[in-house]
Amino acid sequence: MTTVEIRYDPARMRTSQARMRALTEFRTLDRVPVVLGVYTRYLLQQRGVGYDEYLSSPRAHLIHQLENYKWLVEHVPEDRLTAPAITLQPDFENIPNAAAFGAPVGYQDDQPPCVMLCIASIDEMEDWPEASPQDGIWGRSIEWVREWHKLLEDEVEVRLNGERIPVHATTGMYGLGPFSTAVDLVGTDWYAWLYEAPDACQRFLGKITRAMQRMEAYCHETLDPSRRGGIALAEDSAQIISVEQFVAPWCHALYDAFPGVRVMHMCGSSAHLLGTLRDNLRITHFSGFGSVVPPEVAARELGGRVQLLGNVDCWLLQEGPADAIHDAAQHCLAPLAPYGGYTLSDGCNITPDTPLDHLQLMMEAAEAYGAPSVS
Prior knowledge:
Blueprint: E1 2-6, H1 10-24, H2 40-47, H3 51-54, H4 58-75, E2 86-88, H5 96-100, E3 105-108, E4 111-115, H6 122-127, H7 136-154, E5 156-160, E6 163-165, E7 167-169, H8 178-186, H9 189-196, H10 198-222, E8 231-234, H11 243-246, H12 248-257, E9 262-265, H13 274-279, E10 285-287, H14 295-302, E11 307-312, H15 314-319, H16 322-336, E12 342-346, H17 356-369
Parallel strand pairs: 1-5, 2-7, 8-9, 9-10, 10-11, 11-12
Antiparallel strand pairs: 3-4, 5-6
């Protein structure tokens, strides 16, 4: 039996849980929650593990994910751990959707896997087959989760302060949205094709959306019948085009197919889209929104209606200085915290060379700000 032992203060966990519960009601307790974009590339570097080992087998991948989580909650000051349970899924970074559609995958030991372009013409795009849940990384993810279920029965366990806790293994469609998946398959030509052949592009977005719906439904029915509804999407590539024409219909189709929370992530310059995200897509969460979005604008457009997580600049968090990080955090808290529903974070994806003491400054800023008056 392989055991991953996590040590964590139970009182701290209960307090974080209360903060997160208040968040869903657009209330703030003693301070806003802090949850940082500390993801795989950061955690593997801290642990001295490469992607070759991380993705070498279902068993290795499961154990490394659990060890990553252990390192994260034991070292990074935040409010992530709210209950004695863990949920995880196979982690192939940003590639699963495009890889399921046939994009070749490039692997490097010191970098996340990436996909390479595979569609070179509009005619080729029109003839491109729809992916199925068994294709590419989707199929591998399903196989790995089935293997994880066996491993977690007999060979791998997690203990929190000495007590065994449940580990829920799941998977589904990856959250990269239809538009961004199309960009991964076609490249920058996609933007020209939107002008040259908009109907063909809409048909292709339909193919991607239908495939994502099938993948999510298949995983729900065969791997995880107890899964709650809701979908999280990322459309980082969609900020320079007509969201209402080329993004909203297909995101709507996914949100509507799996009712529940409607999470949207956009790293970049999305301030001009916030009204559309609010009124057209009716998002419930804007998660990991980019540091180039002025917090005042996010507060004006979404405050009190959408749960928000962001948006201190990741480069600033890496380089400092400390007083600038503190000031940037306060700049987010001042307009956003009074609405409730706000989580202080980065904007988004902490760089591997960011010092831990710089991450501590985010917690210190939240504690210094305290509980705001609700607007």
